[in-house]
């Protein structure tokens, strides 16, 4: 069964897996936040691999994600390896450890929005 998302449906022309991962992240947002984070990470990893493949920089699925992101940054295809998505992710993980610091669901929602609006 294909998970449907109006927020991520526009990515179907690039790769249906992006739509599926984005939709699953949305689906799990309230019911299973940890799975939502996992899906967002998978979304980001797949997106970086697709961009690298498009420009001839994709090496292997075994390559560390940070190495791929640095190579994309070195070629001018990313503004920053430690950009807003990664920073927000660290805030989310910190809020899981110490919930009084940041409202967990607010940060998770921010990550979903970044995934949706910072793509293409």
Tell me the structural class: mainly alpha
Radius of gyration: 15 Å
The beta-strand count equals: 0
- Total helices: the number is 5
Oligomer: single chain
Helix content: 55-70%
Shape: globular
Order of helices and strands: HHHHH
Strand content is under 5%
Low-confidence stretches: none
* Straight-line distance between termini: 26 Å
What is the number of independent domains? 1
Provide the residue-averaged pLDDT.
Answer: 76
Largest sheet: none
What does this structure look like?
63% of the residues lie in helices and 0% in strands. It is mainly alpha-helical and 120 residues long. It has one domain. Helix 1 runs antiparallel to helix 5 and helix 4 (84-97) runs antiparallel to helix 5. The model has no long low-confidence stretch (mean pLDDT 76).
Distinctive features:
mainly alpha; 120 residues
Any chance you could write out the topology, listing elements then pairs?
Blueprint: H1 16-31, H2 33-54, H3 65-74, H4 84-97, H5 104-117
Helix pairs in contact: 1-2, 1-5, 2-3, 2-5, 4-5
Summarize the model shown.
The protein contains five helices and no strands.
